[in-house]
Amino acid sequence: PRLVNDRLLLGLKGTMSEYELNLLRQRGLAARDSKALRGELQFVLPPGYCWNEIGQIEMDPDERVSGVIRLLFDKFQELGSARQVLLWAQDAALQLPVARRNLSVCRIAWRPAAYHTVLQILRHPIYAGAYVFGRTTQRTRIVDGRARKSTGHSKPMAAWNVLLRDHHPGYISWEQYEANQKLISENAHMLPRTDRKSARGGRALLTGLVRCARCGRTMRVCYGTQSGHAHRYQCRGDDSHIGSGWLCTGIGGVRIDRAVTAQIVEAVSEHAIEAAIQAADQSVKADNEIRQALCRELEEARYEASLAARRYEVVDPTKRLVARELETRWNTALERVAHLEDRIARHDVAGALRPKVDRAALMALARDLPTTWNAPGTDARTKQR
To answer: Domain Recombinase, which positions (predicted)?
Structure first.
């Protein structure tokens, strides 16, 4: 338009249209946040939970899913490290549930244990019975003169948009959830903090626990390259002197470990008998938990095999293009059933061949704790824990 009035009119219409779109977006976001504040906004739930008919969060009725979730939290309580839980799950060949979303359909898929899967389950507050929304945010930065947005950045708990405790039944309590988050944070070895660390093995007893008296940083463990050389605890300060041979402080580790061991044995000797009884019960419980998980997986595999058989039986046998595929699926399901039955049988045989826990001998060792501590079969990770 060449006329000034026409350009003014079109400019006003464009500005009003832009403002109207922005207003609609703001109203939509406000309605979403208001619904989330009431705990009614529905979104994809992690494995172990589902929405019921009236829009409430409830535990997944699938016993296999809920059983594996409970087992992970129990193992983390026992082992004290997400990595140790992962190694245990991989050693037991335990599959974990993963939520897979395809458009509007969300289903549970079973995958081999992965570190991020274990960590997501342990870190999600929904398992503590809390309804949460807005745990992540987006950030904008300027790259080559243009704005670049990135999403998925975690926010601290105080900055979450919505946090409603005791909103639905939880697998753990909120106090246990907070204790788990603190333990996971302390176990981060690569972060420059002075928190205590989880047991990582090695000859040194106080790995990740010794602090420098000068700067307060975590002292590192240096092992001798030749046989018979003892380990040392060393502090390098802020690492600005690496390569120059400068050390903040260093000390031999054998005398420190012996002194700490004497104090630990003296402190826990009164509860050694109770710990021995608990260890005997825990050994039996661990085998039973793995067997229960395998039995649930076998039950699901048998259902899938029967479903594949029913599908094959109702197909027209003359339509071989479909019948061949359904027959292949049926055979695959039967092979999975046979594989799981073989795993359970091997697990039972291994449990029968494993030496039984002698409670009398265990109680005798509990009364003589120094002998148990220095026994060749007591590994370093157990002592560190």
So the answer is: 46-190
Give the bridge partners for 148, in sequence order: 141
User: What's the pLDDT score for residue 69?
Assistant: 93
Q: Which of 253, 255, 250, 251 is nearest to 204 (CA)?
A: 253
Question: What distances in angstroms separate CA 230 from CA 202, 219, 227, 255, 334, one per listed residue?
Answer: 12, 16, 9, 10, 56
Q: Count CA within 13 A, CB hemisphere, residue 135.
A: 11
Q: What is the pLDDT of residue 131?
A: 94
Cα 58 from chain centroid (whole Å): 21
Q: Which residues of the chain have pLDDT under 50?
A: 190, 194
> What pLDDT score was predicted for residue 226?
64
Q: Which residues pair with 58 in a beta bridge?
A: 50
Tokens 């003169």 -> residue: 145
3-state secondary structure the chain: CCCHHHHHHHHHHHHHHHHHHHHHHHHHHHHHHHHHHCCCCCCCCCCCEEECCCCCEEECCCHHHHHHHHHHHHHHHHHCCHHHHHHHHHHCCCEEEEEEEECCEEEEEEEECCHHHHHHHHHCHHHHCCEEECCEEEEEEEECCEEEEEEEEECCHHHCCEEECCCCCCCCCHHHHHHHHHHHHHCCCCCCCCCCCCCCCCCCCCCCCCECCCCCCECEEECCCCCCCCCEEEECCCCCCCCCCCCCEEEEHHHHHHHHHHHHHHHHHHHHHHHHHHHHHHHHHHHHHHHHHHHHHHHHHHHHHHHHHHHHHHCCCCCHHHHHHHHHHHHHHHHHHHHHHHHHHHHHHHHHHCCCCCHHHHHHHHHCHHHHHCCCCCCHHHHHC
**Structure tokens belonging to residue 142:** 């300027």
Closest CA to 52 of 44, 64, 60: 60
pLDDT given for residue 49 in this prediction = 93
